[in-house]
Design goal:
23% of the residues lie in helices and 24% in strands. The protein is α+β, with helices and mostly antiparallel strands and 83 residues long. The strands form 2 sheets. It has a 3-stranded antiparallel β-sheet with strand order 1-4-5. A two-stranded antiparallel ribbon has the order 2-3. A hairpin with a 6-residue loop joins strand 4 and strand 5.
Length: 83
């Protein structure tokens, strides 16, 4: 299911609820958590652990969305450096 545009604000990696991103091999077809683009099995994508409760889940992102997340994170870091 492909959506026309990503939903919500671009997330940042600075927040304390997210774990360290890692590149994983997709074992079965899934969707990007941000834009809904289909990620086929056998393709590598970025997974960011969501540590909201006692169990952690992985949110998968396509490379395009992950680049936007990195840009937002660098902007947030720049803002913190200016304090």
């Amino acid at each position: 299911m492909k959506k026309s545009k990503p939903r919500g604000k671009t997330p940042s990696l600075i927040g304390g609820k997210n774990g360290r991103p890692k590149r994983i091999l997709v074992e079965r077809k899934s969707e990007c958590a941000r834009c809904g683009e289909e990620i086929s099995a056998g393709i590598q994508c970025i997974a960011i652990p969501q540590n909201n409760s006692s169990f952690s889940s992985l949110k998968r992102f396509c490379d395009k969305c992950f680049k936007n997340i990195l840009i937002k994170t660098s902007e947030d870091l720049e803002e913190v450096n200016n304090l």
